[in-house]
Amino acid sequence: MTALDDRLRPMAASLIERTGKTMTLRRVTGSSYDPATGAVTETTSDTVLKGIVEEYEAERIDGGLIQQGDRKISLAAEPMTAEPAPGDSLLIDGAEHLVITVPTCARTAMQE
Question: Does residue 111 have a pLDDT over 60?
Fold first, then answer.
């Protein structure tokens, strides 16, 4: 990390902690099948996070990857005890949202 990274990462994390919305990252960690009933029961793991919830601008909604009603969530990279992955869910204000993609803002990606 650069000196700028060293200063900005904690600042971003602090802003998200102060102004972000509390949400729960839910990941399916396993499942079991009951042959007597034919039911499949999933086991999940929940992690509480804070993030910034944003609506997509109308010009970004393409009907493909970004659809009407989709949300963009920004999380601080540190401290993060669980990293979201496609297929996970985020519970925000009682509604469950499926994680589709997880782009990252890395210093190396911005230098290209």
Answer: no
